[in-house]
Amino acid sequence: MNLAWGIFGFALLGILLSSAIAPIIIRMVSHWGLVDVPGKSAHKQHARPTPLAGGTILVVAYVIIFWLGNFWREHMLQPVFLGGLIIYVFGFWDDKVGLSAFPKLIGQILGSSIIVIWGNSIQLFGNIFTSLLPLQVIPWLDILITFFWLIGVTNAMNMIDSMDGLATGLGVVFFGFISAASMISSQPAMTLLGMSLFGICITLYFLNSTPAHFFLGDSGSQLLGFLSASLALIYAPDNLNPLSTWFVPILLLFLPIFDTTMVVFSRLYHRQPVYKANMDHLYHRLMSLKISPARSVMSVHLASIILGCIAFLVMYTEPILSNGVFILILFCSGLTIYFFIFQSDKKIPKS
Q: In the chain, how many domains are there?
């Protein structure tokens, strides 16, 4: 199949398939009692009971496309499929009965273990610190940072899912950019799978936007984060300088990472439990600046698109320039976190 036609076809398949199954699954999960009731906690401000159907729509469409596209034949994509199923099962369990943090972490460790057992890991220490660390220690450090990446991004996407269309829109942006990046790096199977997820997320975005027909739930937001982290992990631009591309996945997922980092620092500073939901996310802070809900969500999506464009521009430059740009982004992000935590937290309502 011509790759260009494949890209279009899998994106369209993702849109049509998820659109077709969405009404059925919304009715099914409502019948099962998977409904988010208003007023359960302070950060839940929706007006009517809403089905937690997003995760089931995503996983059903994903499983069908994974089979139809013969992606199960691809060794590098097999653990993404299996690990994603584990994440979904634990997320669905959480949506149904409400799990504590520990069982959810166990599910994330199990899903991430599938990725690592298959032989996929971040080669950070092996590529950069070879001459500084004992050789027998390097693989274990790379595995440790891989678990941190997979579990961290999974939770980051879950935490940023604080407003209709926010996480699904970030999914659209990420899968669009990672598909383009994998096409450049000659990873056609990953390109087509990414485009199918791009199409699925387009449907989820429109049905999850205000007024939302469903919420993602933990099953949806965690699965979205895990799939994003996994595809970012197996992205391998061998035709480009790794010193100029190592941070590309970070920039493509920068907004969820930024939001989680800010929330953790804020809650530690204010001596609040990190795991307890509150109205202190990026979206809520933009609202505190008198930005409307729609524009707040749009601002986050636009920022993610800009960061993706920057990643694509600097990946072709010399390492000193590309890493300089990345450091500048980190510095500006640090200033933003400082402003929100120390200057505007008094405007954020506490639960």
A: 1
